[in-house]
Amino acid sequence: MPANTAGAAKTALKKKTPPAKSAKRRLGASPDRGAVINELSDLVARASENTLVPNPLLGLRAADFAEATQSLLKLATVSPGATVGSLAKYAKALGKIVQGKSDLAPDPKDRRFADPAWQGNFAYKRLMQNYLLTHNEFNNLIAGSKLGEREKGQAQFLTALVTDALAPSNWLAGNPAAVRKVVDTGGASVVEGLKNLVHDMRHNHMMPMQVDSTPFKIGENMATSPGQVVYRSETFELIQYTPNTAQVYRRPLVMVPPQVNKFYAVDLTPEKSLVKWAVDSGIQMFMVSWRNPTAEHRDWDLEHYAMAVDEAVDVARQITGSPDVNMWGSCSGGMTLAGYLGWLAGARQGKEAAKVANVSWAVCVLDGAGAMKETTLGLFNSPAAVRAARARSRSKGVIEGSELAAMFAWLRPNDLIWNYWVNNYLLGNKPPAFDILAWNADTTRLPAKFHSDLLDIMEKNPYVQPGAMTIRGVPIDLSKVKIGAYVIGGLTDHITPWKSCYGTARLFGEDSTFVLANAGHLQSLINPPGAPKAFFSTAPSSQADADEWAKSAVRQEGSWWPHWRAWVQERSGDRVDAPSKPGSRVHRPLCAAPGAYVLER
């Protein structure tokens, strides 16, 4: 990637920023240096609190809970003095709560205790304070103990799981809003809550429904960007989106979404559609839409998907007449794309090796070891756990989307489980009708072999170890991949932590552009201009350490989409007249977007 990449993008943004209200702030190089660095540090710290999670690809076994319980019980033996001291401190603080002299209060952002009764009612206030005291004492005891780091993580995971479940807000008598609604409705809320509970036990794998999906229809009010399916194989459909400008850039952009969910996260509604934004910017857009595999596709592996990407690239090149393409890879789609690029660099020579010019990587971790170190994804990772996970998917042929969804929900149970438990069962409400959640509930399956390959990536970390992986007999070495790279991470992403995403940028050279959005995994992508309180930080990935990068990064107010648009337009070649019709003589349109595969359940 050219060395002036970041400078060009910053110049483009500077022209759009009124001098009186500069949207830029260099972290660590302004009059407010300390405040700015502290602000980012605080946000990073809050983000790290959301990373105490098991690996959803592994799942959790009874043996894992037993190991975590053993770690917790070990506290008394490795730190007996600290345990006794903690109990004495707990008893003293409990006495203050009973006497009404405690000033213990929840985090203002903790929505569980937002009801005024938690502060104004004698009983509820003491119930809440007792819960907070217990939760905090356990955390402090574990953090200050002599347990090993892995044992601390396991103990913290188990205590968080239990204490979150036992929060008084999760029980009918302990939730003032629920009690009030029982009185106001004459008990009807209890009846409705029981109906919701029975429905979810029968139809949602005993998990609370997170969304009412009935108002949302794919192709009608979701995934509505106009286009045509111009290619279909057993594995994927390729969508060519209809240009919305008189001229387009010659070099097309091919998007490779994750196999874990369907592609239309980037085309939810016109107001939130990154697809529409790119098309309106003159980019020739192509989208891979993966087929939802069944047990008969159990042998589809990473190599199979990588070769499917090669098919998509060749189709886009043939239709547009461009010798090469730009690409976008997100999450597991980005892992697939990395394998494809490594194969391309190792197997092809001359012009064929230059099929891909530039790549945007969105919330994608290619250095698995970095993610393991940064988060507690390795808490329950072991050879036995990996063997068990492989055996489960091999026996079924696939990993069901519902299984992955449940595991992802347990990554943040207060937000993704207990929140809906209270709403659906205690209050007797229907779940909200929200487009992002409707997309999230539209799950897909993973083939057993591909699942096994993802576990290999987690175990062997092949993208930073040349030759540890082969595709069609070609050793994969990403150091041979010469592309321009633009990498997006989410500051509060608990699935692909931002520091690990920064490691992805480092794999493609110090000139790679890294962008850190102040949002989570999905929210960092659905980030249209005008989003309230949005900002991002950006700089080349020239620093070896992510925290050092953060100190020198430039803060921009608003969405990163315009910044990315400037970057990708600069690398998309000359403008040419927009095609008058989709496809080509070789690849004729098959059906309207969003296609048939996205509708498969």
What does this structure look like?
With 601 residues, the chain is an alpha/beta fold. 44% of the residues lie in helices and 13% in strands. The chain has a twelve-stranded mixed sheet, sandwiched between helices. Helix 3 packs across helix 8 and helix 15 packs antiparallel against helix 19. The longest helix is centred in the first third of the chain and has 22 residues. It is globular and about 80 Å long.
Count of individual beta strands = 18
Model regions low in confidence, pLDDT < 50 over at least 5 residues: 1-54
Helical percentage = 40-55%
Q: What percent strand?
A: 5-15%
**Helix/strand/pairing category:** alpha/beta
Shape: globular
Cα-based radius of gyration, to the nearest Å: 25 Å
Strand line-up of the largest beta sheet: 1-16-15-14-13-8-7-5-6-3-2-18
How would you characterize the largest beta sheet?
12 strands, mixed
Instruction: Give me the oligomer status.
Output: single chain
How far do the termini sit from each other? Answer: 40 Å
Number of helices: 22
Mean pLDDT score, rounded? 86
Topology:
Layout: H1 5-15, E1 24-26, H2 33-48, H3 62-73, H4 75-78, H5 80-99, H6 117-120, H7 122-143, H8 149-165, H9 176-185, H10 188-203, E2 227-232, E3 236-241, E4 247-249, E5 253-256, H11 274-280, E6 285-290, H12 302-320, E7 325-330, H13 331-347, E8 356-362, H14 368-374, H15 383-396, E9 398-399, H16 401-409, H17 413-426, H18 435-441, E10 446-447, H19 448-460, E11 470-471, E12 474-475, E13 484-490, H20 498-507, E14 513-517, E15 535-540, H21 546-552, E16 554-557, H22 561-570, E17 575-577, E18 591-592
Helix pairs in contact: 1-22, 3-8, 5-7, 7-8, 12-13, 15-19
